[in-house]
Write a structure and sequence with these properties.
The protein has a domain of 82 residues: Helix Hairpins (Orthogonal Bundle). It starts with a strand and ends with a strand. The protein is rod-shaped and about 135 Å long. Helix content is 25%, strand content 26%. The longest helix has 33 residues. The protein has three helices and 17 strands. Belongs to the membrane fusion protein (MFP) (TC 8.A.1) family. This is Efflux RND transporter periplasmic adaptor subunit.
């Protein structure tokens, strides 16, 4: 990615190599002197003090050699670091320095920022889950459910078209907010997702619930009420107040207000008014397939994705 001027580091490495050679020569000489002194006997034998001095000199030369080797290793590493390579694969930001700029190493504000790199595939989706959702996921997992998958919807998407695997849940809830941190890993082979985006998350397969689903267009607003038109007695249209829930694959969950036997008006709502008589026909309702992933970036590119 970057090349730092290596000339001073090459010179430092050469100096360290020369110091090592000098230390090795001194060690060889000190060891030879000690060996000769230990081989003398009789009148040629050295005193105990002289032998101790030679032994100390040999050990000192050996230690100096080890220090020179360590110094050479350090200088070689510094020379190697003049070639800056990417530690991870991902998306690189713009460069913050130009050719000829002075850069500084180290930690904190003293170091020079060259660029930033973000891992793009896979990408992490970080979220804060409520205590109720956390408890439900744990109970579903304990009952044999697969509550480790997460479905994600970006800001401009109507459906949860991204799927990831929850690989981290914190060890405690935040007592101030009553939430727990979690993280899901999401495959991002085309690089569409970018760090910093916001999205909504729900658990996939977090237990099964029996509920009524109707096309979202069948739920109408009557003043401040949500109503659904149904065909009642004598084929008369009746407006039933309902309590709608979330949207699931194009179908609206009805929490309350409808019965499984009700005949819901799903087409021609503009001609069916409360009290009118209609000729009902059977219709077919199918869940809408998850919307295909958009190829262009979202209009609002904010998010809880990070890496």
């Amino acid at each position: 990615m970057f090349l730092i001027d290596a000339r001073p580091f090459k010179a430092a490495e050469a100096e360290a190599r020369a110091r090592l050679a000098s230390a090795q020569s001194a060690f060889v000489l000190a060891r030879s002197d000690l060996k000769r002194a230990e081989g003398l006997s009789g009148e040629d034998a050295l005193s105990a003090n002289e032998l101790d001095r030679l032994r100390a000199a040999a050990k000192s030369a050996e230690a100096a050699t080890a220090a020179a080797e360590a110094q050479l290793t350090q200088r070689s590493l510094e020379l190697e670091w003049t070639t800056v390579v990417a530690p991870i694969s991902g998306r690189v930001s713009d460069r913050r320095v130009d050719v000829g700029n002075l850069v500084m190493g180290g930690a904190g504000d003293a170091a020079t920022l060259l660029t930033t790199i973000q891992s793009a595939d896979p990408i992490y989706f970080s979220f804060d889950a409520s205590e109720a959702l956390h408890l439900k996921a744990k109970r579903d997992a304990g009952n044999g459910g697969a509550a480790t998958r997460a479905q994600i919807r970006l800001q401009d998407e109507a459906s949860y078209s991204w799927e990831g695997t929850i690989d981290f849940t914190d060890n405690a809830l935040d007592p101030r907010s009553g939430t727990i941190r979690g993280r899901a890993t999401v495959a991002n082979p085309d690089g569409f997702l970018s760090p910093g985006m916001f999205g909504s998350m729900r658990l996939a397969n977090a237990g099964s619930v029996k509920t009524l689903l109707v096309p979202d267009a069948a739920v109408q607003t009557d003043l401040a009420r949500k109503v659904v038109l149904v065909v009642g007695k004598d084929n008369k249209v009746v407006a039933k107040q309902v309590q709608p829930g979330p949207l699931v694959d194009g179908l609206r969950v009805i929490r309350n207000g409808l019965a499984a036997s009700d005949q819901v008006v799903i087409t021609g709502m503009q001609f069916a008014t409360a009290g009118s008589v209609v000729a009902p026909q059977k219709g077919e309702v199918k869940p809408r397939a998850l919307a295909a992933k958009a190829q262009a970036a979202p209009a609002a590119a904010q998010a809880t994705l990070d890496r």
